[in-house]
Amino acid sequence: MTRNTDTSPATAGPGRTGSRSQWLTLPDCKRVLVVVHTEVYGRRLRDVLPLLASDLRLQIHFTIAPHAFNAGAARALPQTHGGVLAWEDALRARFDLVLAAGSQGVERLRGPLLRLPHGAGFTKLSRLTDDRDPGTPRTVGGLGRQYLVRDGRVVPSALALAHRDDLARLRRRCPEAVPVARVVGDATHDRIVAGLPLRHRYRAALGLRRGQKLVLVSSTWGAGSSFGRLDALLPRLLGELPSPEYRIAVLVHPNVCAGHGDWQVRSWLEAARHRGIALVASETDWRALLIAADWVIGDHGSVTLYATLTRGAVLLARYPADDVDPASPGAELARVAPAVSPAHPLAEQLAYARTTRPAAEYGRIARRISSEPGRFAAHTRRLMYELLGLGEPAYEPSLPPIPEPEPLWGTGRDRVPA
Q1: DSSP β-bridge partners for residue 214
Q2: How many CB atoms are located within 10 Å of the residue 192 CB?
Q3: Which of 110, 123, 130, 387 could disulfide-link 328, Cβ–Cβ 3.0 to 4.6 Å?
Q4: Of 405, 408, 381, residue with least CA distance to 195
Q5: For residue 126, what pLDDT band results from cuts at 50, 70 and 90?
Q6: What's the whole-model pTM score?
C-alpha cells in the first residue's frame, strides 16, 4: 500500500482541527470517508459517489484498508492525488460518514458506518478457514456475524441490502443486525437496466461489426472459479468458433490478479491473446460488455448472475455447489442454465443455449437481484443524508449511464489487464 505524500493544508494529518482549518476554503464541511479494501469493493463504492459529488457541504476522503486482495485497490480510486489518507491517519480521524463494502478493520474507524454489498445476490458461502474467526461455521458471505459483529457490537450503523429476501436471510444469519438493515436496491442492477437500450452503441464502441457475435467468458476468483479451466476452454473457443463471425473476450475478477500478480495472470493468458481473444482491462466497466454480449460463459460470480438482466444466454463453465448458498439466486440460476460439455461442439452448445434460453426463469432470477428496481439512487442518498444529519440536495438523485468502452477490436491490438 502506497502512503499518501500530499502534505497540503487540506489533507495533511488525520484531522481538521486547530490551525489547519484556517487554510481551508470550506472549513465546516461534513467529512465522508470511502474505505477501499479491494479494487472490486472500490468500484462498487464509486457507484455511490455521484449521489454526494455536488454537495459543497461535504468533503470526501479515501483510504485503502488492509486486505489480502488490496494489491489493485488504488486502481479503483477516482483520483490519484489529494484526499487519500493513509490507513493509520484514517484510524485517528473522526468522520461524519464512513462508506465501505468490506468488513475488515472498519470497527476501528470512528464515525457512522454504512456497509454496502460488494456483489450480487449474496451467493458465496464464507471460506472454510476464515482468518477473522477461525473455526466458525460457514455462513453466507457478507451476512454472517463474523462480517457484522465485533466484541458483541453490531459494527455498521446502517447495512444496505438489495432485496427484501436478503433481509429474511440476515434475520436467520445475524438477527442482531436486522434493526440497522435497509433495503435500498442495487446500483449495478439499475445501471445495467438503464443501459440496455444502448446495446448497439456499446457493441460499436467495442469494434464489433454487424453480424458478429460476442462470447464473454467471465471468471470470479478462487479455487471453484472457471479460471482454472480457461486453459482448456479458450483453445476450444478459438478452434471451434469461426472467426471473425465470433469474437471472444475474457473478463477476469481483479482478485485473481491481486492474488497471483498482474504479470502472472497476463502471462497465463498471453497465448490466447495472441490468437485473437481479447483480455478485458481491469479499468474497463464490464457492464458495457455484459450488455453487448450474445453469450456469457461464467461461474458462480456476480457477472453471471447480472447476465440474466440482458439479452445474453448463459452457460456455466464451472459451478462449485458446495461454495454456494442453495437459497441464493445464483443457485437458482445454476439449476436452469446449461453447463458447458467437453464432448459436444461449442457452436452447437451456444445455439442450444440461445434457442432454449428460459426467459421466464431468467426474469424471475433477475427480479431476485433487487426488490427496488430503479430506486437505488433515491434510497441510498436518503440513507446517507440521514446518517450525516443533513437535508438532501433539492434535485432528483440519479446514476450516470455506463460509459462506452474503448475498442477491443479494430485497433490493431487487444487491451490487456492493467
Answers
A1: 247
A2: 21
A3: 123
A4: 405
A5: confident
A6: 0.90
Domain layout of the chain by residue ranges: 18-188+372-388, 196-367
CATH for 196-367, options being 3.30.413.10, 3.40.50.1000, 3.10.180.10, 3.40.50.2000: 3.40.50.2000
Residue 124: all three cell numbers together: 458465496
Question: How far apart (Å, rounded) are the C-alpha atoms in residues 259 and 101?
Answer: 19
Enumerate residues 6+ apart whose C-beta is below 8 A from 307.
290, 293, 296, 298, 314
The whole-angstrom separation of Cα 59 and Cα 95 is 10
How is residue 140 written as a grid cell? 453466507
User: What is the C-alpha to C-alpha distance for residues 300 and 256, in angstroms, rounded to an integer?
Assistant: 15
Q: What percent of the chain has pLDDT over 90?
A: 76
Measured CA to CA, the distance from residue 338 to residue 314 in angstroms comes to 7
Residue 186 near residue 369 (C-beta atoms within 8 A): yes
Confidence of residue 128 (pLDDT cuts 50, 70, 90): low
Cell matching residue 217: 467468458
Angle among Cα 44, 138, 371 to the nearest 5 degrees reads: 45
Please give the Cα distance from 116 to 416 (Å, whole number): 30
3-class DSSP state of 200: helix
Q: What does the pLDDT read at residue 112?
A: 98
Contacts of residue 270, defined as CB under 8 A and 6 or more positions apart, other chains included, come to none
Note the Cα 371 to chain centre separation in Å: 18
Q: For the segment 84-96, what is each residue's pLDDT rounded down to a tens digit?
A: 899 999 999 999 9
Asked if 309 and 366 count as a contact pair (C-beta separation under 8 A), the reply is yes
Give the span between the Cα atoms of 241 and 119, in whole angstroms.
31
Q: Calculate what percentage of the chain has a pLDDT beyond 70.
A: 89
Instruction: Tell me the average pLDDT across 281-306.
Output: 95
Q: All 3 cell numbers of residue 238?
A: 478459438
Q: What cell was used for 49? A: 459517489
- Over its C-alpha atoms, the chain yields an Rg (Å, rounded) of 22
- Domain 18-188+372-388 classified CATH 3.40.50? yes
Beta-carbon neighbour count of residue 232 at 10 Å? 11
| H or E element at residue 266 | helix 262-274
Cβ neighbours of residue 113 under 8 Å, at least 6 residues apart? 98, 99, 100, 106, 155, 156, 157, 158
Residues with Cβ within 8 Å of residue 97, at least 6 apart in sequence: 30, 31, 32, 33, 111, 112, 114, 384, 387, 388
CA 379 to chain centre: 19
